[in-house]
Predict the structure.
Amino acid sequence: MDIIREIQSELVELKEFPKFGAGDTVTVSYKIKEGNKERIQQFQGVVLQRRGSGATETFTVRKMSGNVGVERIFPIASPFIDEIAVNKRGSVRRARIFYFRERTGKSARIKEKRSFTH
């Protein structure tokens, strides 16, 4: 299995992104091709989970569009991801916050993690 990982690390170019995890609010800028035009679109929402490792790692982001919840799964190694910006760090107790899907209103809020850097 180490041979597969070595080949993957040579072939797939991983970009440097800020550290983020479940509960964090992120803005993912990704490239969209429409015909021969290319533009960058932002997807801002709460990270529900990160799964996998290395080149096959993915993360799920959920946002509310009107009254409908929209989830999108992004591969970390995707060449279409331009940048990932962490807007807020959330304080959650678990790595996968699927319970967040059923929440609405005030119970759908995530406490912000306090940072004591001066």
User: Anything to note?
Assistant: Helices lie at 2-11.
